[in-house]
UniProtKB/TrEMBL annotation:
Gene Ontology terms, MF aspect: ATP binding; ATP hydrolysis activity
Any single Pfam family the record assigns to this protein: ABC_tran
Keyword tags: ATP-binding, Nucleotide-binding, Transport
UniProt-recorded name of the protein: ABC transporter ATP-binding protein
Matching SUPFAM superfamilies: P-loop containing nucleoside triphosphate hydrolases
Length: 243
């Protein structure tokens, strides 16, 4: 079964083309990574697929629905973690996650909140105001919010931002476990090591275009980086630095 399918998906902002002719297919159960330099169109792709933006042209289907004509149905069926999004500063993590659970009509909200707080190690700050949390703690709360209602598909923009190395490993374990149950994860990143370690399939974007796709399993980080540099093109030193 296909979880995400796009055909010539394009988004322009005036004279700027942020995403051009994106055509891809993501199977259910995949841990798909959209890999590319900053400004390559990764965030725009997620915003189009989650109904936050309408395309200039082209089509998309997410969990069998059209994000343009059925945006609420798509959002109800998925989880989303945008890059650099924080819980409201005037709420505690418990209050924020309870609100998310109620909006999502989630059963056993308190049990789920406690479970994610234990898994992502923020139980000690569940009842502290979010304004006093560290960046890493806020990121963990937002990760919990994306998965709280146990969706079949989750979109994450830069999943490991602001996390220390130990917590990065913990989050990687949780993401892999989520997909091992048949769920689908679509993540965007400009970190080659994250794509090499986590993903079952990678699409490489540059200047708004999908320039290559590959299966990174069996590839080392160095091999995927070399492939990335080759596909992005230009000066190898510049391409590697952008990665």
């Amino acid at each position: 079964m296909v979880a995400i399918e796009t055909s010539d998906l394009t988004r322009r902002f005036g004279d700027v083309t942020a995403l051009s002719g994106l055509s891809l297919s993501v199977e259910e159960g995949a841990l798909f990574g959209l890999l590319g330099p900053n400004g390559s169109g990764k965030t725009t792709a997620i915003e189009l697929l989650t109904g936050q933006l309408e395309p200039t042209s082209g089509t998309a289907r997410v969990v069998g629905r059209d994000p343009v004509t059925e945006p609420m149905a798509v959002r109800e069926a998925i989880g989303i973690l945008p890059e650099r999004e924080d819980p409201p500063s005037f709420l505690t993590p418990r209050e924020y996650l309870t609100f998310v659970g109620e909006v999502r009509e989630t059963a056993e909200i308190e049990t789920r909140i406690d479970g994610w707080a234990d898994r992502l190690e923020f139980a000690g700050v569940l009842d502290a105001l979010a304004t006093g949390l560290s960046e890493g703690e806020r990121q963990r709360v937002m990760l919990a919010a994306a998965f709280l209602h146990d969706p079949d598909l989750v979109f994450i923009d830069e999943p490991l931002v602001n996390l220390d190395p130990i917590m990065q490993e913990r989050v990687k374990e949780q993401l892999a476990a989520y997909c091992s149950r048949g769920n689908t994860l679509f993540l965007s990143t400009h970190y080659v090591d994250v794509a090499a370690e986590l993903c079952t399939h990678v699409g490489i974007v540059d200047d708004g275009e999908l320039v290559a796709e590959c299966d990174p399993r069996g590839m080392s980080e160095e091999e995927l980086l070399a492939y990335f540099v080759e596909e992005v093109g230009g000066d190898p030193a510049v391409a590697e630095a952008r990665a």
